[in-house]
Design brief:
Layout lengths: L2 H12 L10 H38 L4 E3 L5 E3 L3 E10 L9 E2 L2 E9 L6 E8 L2 E8 L12 E7 L3 E2 L2 H14 L2 E10 L5 H5 L5 E10 L2 E2 L2 E3 L1 E3 L1
Length: 227
Amino acid sequence: MAHGEDLDLEAAAAAAPYHAVKGDPREHDEASGRRCSQACLLWTLGLLGLTVFLSTFAFFSTTTRPATPTLGGRYYHDHDAFSVSIAGYEGIDPGSAGAAVSPAFRVTLRTMNGACIDRAAVTVLYSGVALGWARAEPRDCAAGRRERDVKVVARGQGVGLSERLRGRMASEWRSSGSLVLDIDVKVFDEVNSPAHADRHAPDRIILCKVTLDEQGSDSSACPWFEL
């Protein structure tokens, strides 16, 4: 091999290949740092905004307000209160009820804390079965009367009771001497929502639960819900 060729090979071997040339690692670190700084800043701002929103929502949710607005522009006082009791009953023997019964329940609905009722539909139920129902139209709200008792007689005519339901009723009565009844009350507001009242659409529903014995039931506070 010629001497010139030896020089060429040595020069080629000494030359570093292209792919082996490395860049400055500090340039990569600086670019990554810039991208991380932007992403971290956006994430922090988003988290801060969410925290402010949740704090504001919690504040207004827990703030005491004198009235609750509805979609129709009506206002109901949050402190309105209702209770119900059964003064007496007839037409049904809870210990041995027949397959068909015609009971009557003397129901008193009491309004408190400035509440009133224009019209109401009352239903007495046992285990989801309606035993008696009644309507009342005192129109106390329209007349400006507050905190008045509304008394009705909720009657049922030929109400059919299954054998299973009668067995459950008799067992509950024998074991405790009482019966747990539900009393649902639909309230119609003729003053603040005459259109609803005309369409027989209730504004509120009051859900009550009483324990009935041989004498009737004690008064029980009732939760109510705006419709």
